[in-house]
Specification:
The chain is mainly α. The chain is built from 10 helices and no strands. The two termini are 30 Å apart. Belongs to the MsrQ family. Keywords: Cell membrane, Electron transport, Flavoprotein, FMN, Heme, Iron, Membrane, Metal-binding, Transmembrane, Transmembrane helix, Transport.
């Protein structure tokens, strides 16, 4: 039992010695592989859009797992949370650009009409917009300029963004699949846990 309790601090000790750049490099490598696979798929546009969107949701969920790991398992990976969040935003931006440039070929009238007409696009676009101010204020100086309390409240938008992302995934599948529902369940669970903690403070 004592050995099990010591696993978390041991992992945290190792993590403290690891810089953040391998996380960025690994994420970029995963993204590059996904793009390569997408370009060689039967329908490259659809494969790229789905693959990059999934990576964005996965990295965003991973960033939300960091705090529960610290609280429940005493594994401190907080230094990597920003990297995971920025990678998620980067993949989401590429996901949006694939749809914008390759699918709709920058036909702006059609783009806005599609966003308004199709609920799953409306939901996904709203999630993307919510993440823009979070990515823009991810640097250390933003905390000083906004103040820690304001900055913290702003970054709670990630909870709504991840739910919108999961709902977007479920809706675009046309039919409910076990995979999409698992992602939605994970997003709702992580957000609910965070809300409980916030209210307890």
């Amino acid at each position: 039992m004592a050995d099990a309790a010591a696993i978390g601090p041991r992992i945290s000790g190792v993590a403290r010695k690891v810089p953040t750049w391998p996380v960025y490099l690994g994420g970029i490598g995963i993204g590059a592989w996904e793009i390569w696979q997408g370009l060689n798929a039967i329908d490259p546009v659809d494969a790229l859009s789905l693959g990059l969107g999934m990576l964005s949701l996965q990295f965003l969920l991973a960033s939300l797992v960091v705090t529960p790991l610290m609280r429940f398992a005493r594994i401190n990976l907080l230094k990597f949370r920003k990297a995971l969040g920025l990678l998620a935003f980067g993949f989401l931006t590429l996901h949006f650009l694939v749809w914008l440039v390759l699918d709709l070929q920058l036909r702006w009238g059609l783009i806005w009409a599609e966003i308004v007409k199709r609920p799953y696009l409306t939901v996904g676009f709203a999630g993307f917009l919510l993440l823009i101010p979070l990515a823009a204020t991810s640097w250390q100086g933003a905390i000083r300029r906004l103040g820690a309390r304001t900055w913290g409240r702003l970054h709670r938008l990630v909870y709504l963004a991840v739910i919108l992302g999961a709902v977007h995934f479920v809706m675009q599948e046309k039919v409910w699949t076990m995979e999409s529902l698992l992602y939605l369940t994970a997003a709702l669970f992580l957000v609910c846990v965070r809300i409980v903690w916030i209210r307890a403070w």
